[in-house]
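User: Before I run my own analysis I want an independent prediction to cross-check against. Here's the chain; please return only the structure tokens and, at the end, one sentence I can use as a sanity check.
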Amino acid sequence: MSGDEKVEAKGEQAKGKAKEAAGRLVGNERLTAEGRTEQAKGDARDAKEKIKDMFKH
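Assistant: Structure tokens:
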């Protein structure tokens, strides 16, 4: 996995988790949903890079 893509994926996942937690804390469903969406994007990016790595070896 390229280092930059891995960092971006992990950062997106962390940002999403933080948004989701903040949304739950203040009772904002929209913020919670945005956090879940960002986490899913990070998960998808992470999975894509893992698949790329499988085919490189």
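Sanity check: The mean pLDDT is 91.
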